[in-house]
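Why should sequence recovery work at all? Because a backbone constrains its sequence more than one might expect. Tight turns favour small or flexible residues, buried strands favour hydrophobic ones, and helices have their own preferences. The token representation captures these environments compactly. In the example below, the structure is given first.
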């Protein structure tokens, strides 16, 4: 978004979202286990990526209303520039940085990239690109909000059906498997973006935040109780969804809890740090992951200092997030000089 068009609570919500992403990866990929690590990990994964897609839908709806005539063409061009090209660039960077990439099947790397199944966490760039294009086309064809709601319900049903079908599929090739993961996953991502477009809770207009937030918290706790009964949670990247019904509900409720909280807080006080982090969330998402050495360095420091458990998680999380932010700052300075 342009600086003049930025929305404070949206940036703060994105900041919280990317912090949750880093937190989840430090627990999982960084292997920082502590007493409540499994519960926290599963809870984060129940809605953290849905949050970004719902935010995208909210912003798409606002922009669409502002510029209906040339919106489709402009959006496709900007999405190619800001999402699709970075997806391929970061895929190449990850391949170069991955010490095992040359030992593994290069063909598998290429298929993973061109099918848009993607490597974690840059799969998000490809999925966001295609779902945003799909939503823009739906907006262009479907003018009335009632029809958008019908489209959202239809995509939810298709997401559930694809999940049920996927559970019984036997893949004969990696190409078919990766392509299937991408298209089925895209349906789920499309659902969340459409939810943001129709904005069922009127996040931009809501004046009864406290009561709505309490209701959401109760519903989210109930849904998470059901969700958490399925071991190992879910992973949207690999389309490993334990319960699609609960995943869709938890994704929407968890996202709106964050959005309503951010809206409420930003009406009282400015949180510039979280705004800045949210504005650079895509960069942090790409830099913090295991292809860069930050998680390994954090582990080495903890081992050297004899730190383990919850303290090791906190130390590692702070180091990885701080290193990613520092990397973004360096890239910004380099790009400014160029």
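From this structural description, the recovered sequence reads:
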């Amino acid at each position: 978004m342009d600086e003049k068009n930025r929305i404070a609570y949206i940036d703060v919500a994105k900041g919280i979202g990317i912090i949750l992403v880093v937190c989840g990866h430090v627990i999982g990929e960084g292997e920082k286990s502590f007493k409540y690590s499994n519960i926290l990990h599963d809870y984060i994964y129940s809605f953290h990526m849905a949050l970004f897609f719902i935010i995208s839908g909210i912003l798409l709806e606002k922009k669409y209303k502002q510029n209906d005539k040339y919106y489709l063409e402009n959006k496709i061009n900007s999405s190619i520039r800001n999402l699709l090209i970075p997806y391929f660039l970061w895929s190449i960077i990850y391949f170069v940085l991955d010490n095992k990439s040359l030992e593994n099947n290069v063909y598998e790397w290429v298929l993973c990239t061109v099918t848009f199944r993607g490597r974690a966490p840059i799969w998000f760039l490809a999925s966001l690109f295609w779902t945003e294009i799909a939503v823009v086309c739906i907006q262009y064809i479907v003018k009335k909000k009632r029809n958008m709601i019908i489209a959202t319900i239809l995509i939810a049903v298709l997401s559930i059906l694809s999940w049920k079908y996927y559970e019984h599929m036997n893949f004969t090739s990696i190409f078919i498997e990766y392509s299937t993961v991408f298209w089925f996953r895209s349906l789920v991502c499309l659902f969340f973006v459409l939810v943001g477009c129709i904005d069922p809770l009127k996040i931009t207009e809501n004046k009864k935040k406290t009561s709505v937030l309490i209701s959401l918290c109760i519903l989210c706790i109930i849904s998470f109780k059901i969700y958490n009964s399925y071991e190992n949670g879910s992973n949207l990247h690999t389309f490993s969804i334990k319960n699609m019904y609960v995943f869709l509900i938890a994704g929407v409720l968890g996202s709106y809890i964050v959005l309503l909280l951010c809206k409420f807080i930003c009406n009282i006080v400015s949180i510039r740090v979280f705004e800045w982090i949210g504005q650079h969330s895509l960069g942090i998402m790409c830099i913090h992951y295991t292809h860069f050495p930050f998680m390994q360095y954090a582990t080495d420091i903890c081992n050297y200092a004899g730190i383990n458990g919850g303290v090791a998680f906190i130390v590692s999380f702070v180091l990885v997030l701080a290193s990613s932010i520092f990397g973004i700052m360096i890239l910004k300075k380099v790009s400014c000089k160029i």
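A few observations help interpret the result. Residues 30 and 295 are 6 Å apart (CA to CA).
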